[in-house]
Amino acid sequence: VYNAAPAWGITVGDALGVPDPVLTQHLHLHQGQTFSFLGIRVSSPLSLVVNGKRPPGSALAPPRLALSNPSASPQ
User: Fold this and answer.
1) Is the pTM of this model over 0.85?
2) What is the distance between the alpha carbons of residues 17 and 62, in angstroms, rounded to a whole number?
3) Of 54, 63, 59, nearest to 6 (Cα)?
4) 59 φ, ψ to 5°?
5) What is the structure's pLDDT at 43?
6) pLDDT recorded at residue 15
């Protein structure tokens, strides 16, 4: 589950409700092999329903800022 906190998750046997899912067909070619699979995206793990309940706010991963500057010289 994207954007889920590392300490939160679902387990085998949990009932999972996915409101407003976005289904996407992924097709990737790598070293002459084709990989095709379906992906389901939701806006946030907080929009899921697990075992009849919404996840707590702590289920959402905190934001992280990653910066890069490809034109900077290595030190």
Assistant:
1) no
2) 23
3) 59
4) -75, -20
5) 84
6) 96
Q: What is the largest CA-CA distance in the chain?
A: 53
pLDDT, average across residues 40-57: 92
User: Read out DSSP for the chain?
Assistant: -TTB-TT----TT--EE-SS-EEEEEEEEETTEEEEEEEEE-S-GGG-EETTBPPPGGGBPPP------TTSPP-
Q: What are phi and psi of 12, to 5 degrees?
A: -60, 130
Tokens of 64: 């992280």
For 13-32, the pLDDT digits (tens) are: 999 999 888 999 999 999 99
| 5, HSE (Cβ side, Cα atoms, 13 Å) | 11
Residue indicated by tokens 């959402």:
60
